[in-house]
């Protein structure tokens, strides 16, 4: 599904190298987790894959189902099936949440040569998905993320994911700012989307999210590289001993 | 002996000297004559005038109107077409009886200035030019005095009861050299309500004054769009005086126009009155758009609100001069003013001069002015969800204008404006 080979990335403005040769393959139907200390490059990886400005790829490549991601505009990557659940969802005053969702859905459909969703079908779908995430009518009507609590913002991200039905989902620290109940709700939303045809890359600091979203593979990232890969047990090891042991072991 | 050399008259002085009044009845001639005297005493606006610091008055005051090519609106639906309204049509400033509805509407008396001005006695004599004259202090507004003196026509609306539908003044531009001067008068009796809509470019050059006397407990709604003819020029003034517990709500949308100066002068003279003035403007290239607002609080517990938004591209210029004057005794005044510009490409500029002048000690007044580019984080977020850059930019542009558009209280009218804005942005995308 997602294949990243020897990816090297510089920060444009600071002339600083963040990713120093990332190799990673996420297969369809699998959940991969990336853990790592602050500043290891986890979020940068998610931004580079989704097409945010400000990064220069100096070496390597990334493909989604064999198609070169890095050559595409952010909107083309989304239409191709890539979805990033933001660590900090952006507030957009003046744009209604529903308008935003429908515009995004129809833009993706149009890019793929599909018909637009009808207003009635859209409404039915969004109500159904919102209900399972406990998103009420008021939240749907309000401007995108404006005045939402941390938990509401993350639930809204998962709602978008559920509506857009991407092939490859990247969750960037979706657990940050969530209390236990919200984490459960969000995790259930994610688990409901697990599917043989869909890949997940879950970026997190802590093991606790992985109690709810059980990964198949866990990677440890440090200083722009993946330094260790293992099964779910690796996350437990981090939880118990912190990153220091693994870092010294590799060094 | 040689005669002393005479001082050479400036072009403006020559123009003033050459002005002559149109024919009319007793009251109209008196009002026009007084306005011409005012105008001659104050002189036409000059480039060095402080009040014209950001907008060059030349093309608005010169004797001949600069030519303006006609804009092809294509298959665009008629503005306010979805609203049941009384249509009054002017073509290049000339009343078009064929295209207009009968000037009859329950609760209102509607007349043309050109006809009322021929009579010797008319209710308008106590109103015509009166608010304009009051608005000449503390800042001179010569183009408004010129209008009172020379207006060839206009609509007089006397509202005596609640009205069933809006009155729509439609300004069609057909001649590339037309120079139109219209003067409207609207008088709302106690506890009445009326909605006046205006749309269209009107002429190559358009000078328009609207005087609005809002009686106690009355409500005046105004929604205007200024047409899309890019080369047209307009100098417009609204003068309003508000009685006790009355409300005045005005919204203007401007897209295109090489020169627009919209002045709005409001006096809150009765307690507990409300005045809201809003504007949404979008322009490209040599677009120049100036909102000049002067609100005087002269009574207690009044509220005023100014919300002006401009989207400027490719070197377009936006100007905002907004003042709130709170007189001594106007306690518990609530004044708010915001002016913001969104610069979509380099080289555009926004010039803002927000002013507060307060002589009462128990008031709440705030003002703010910002200039900024599109929010890159919001743009990226929308694109990451699959919305193409051009559409995302338009969505954010509409969102930026929304605060001004939301000042329109009628849902159907707000819908008309929103769909028009969306349509224009869509067409621009191609």
Automatic annotation (TrEMBL), chain A:
Highest taxon in the source lineage: Bacteria
Pfam family, one: ABC_tran
Example of a GO MF term: ATP binding
Signal peptide: none
Gene3D superfamilies: P-loop containing nucleotide triphosphate hydrolases
Matching PROSITE patterns: ABC_TRANSPORTER_1, ABC_TRANSPORTER_2
Keyword ATP-binding appears in the UniProt entry: yes
Statement: the UniProt record of this protein carries the keyword Aminoacyl-tRNA synthetase: no
Coiled-coil residue windows: none
ABC transporter domain ranges (all copies): 2-248
Keywords: ATP-binding, Nucleotide-binding
Cross-referenced NCBIfam families: sufC (TIGR01978)
Family, per entry: Belongs to the ABC transporter superfamily. Ycf16 family.
Protein name (record): Fe-S cluster assembly ATP-binding protein
Source species of the chain: Roseovarius marisflavi
Taxonomic classification: Bacteria, Pseudomonadati, Pseudomonadota, Alphaproteobacteria, Rhodobacterales
Automatic annotation (TrEMBL), chain B:
Domain called SUF system FeS cluster assembly SufBD N-terminal: residue spans: 30-162
InterPro entries on file: Fe-S_cluster_assembly_SufBD, SUF_FeS_clus_asmbl_SufBD_core, SUF_FeS_clus_asmbl_SufBD_sf, SUF_FeS_clus_asmbl_SufD, SufBD_N
Pfam families: SUFBD_core, SufBD_N
Domain SUF system FeS cluster assembly SufBD core: 176-400
SUPFAM superfamilies named in the record: Stabilizer of iron transporter SufD
GO biological process: iron-sulfur cluster assembly
Protein family according to the UniProt entry: Belongs to the iron-sulfur cluster assembly SufBD family.
This protein's name: Fe-S cluster assembly protein SufD
Source organism of the structure: Roseovarius marisflavi
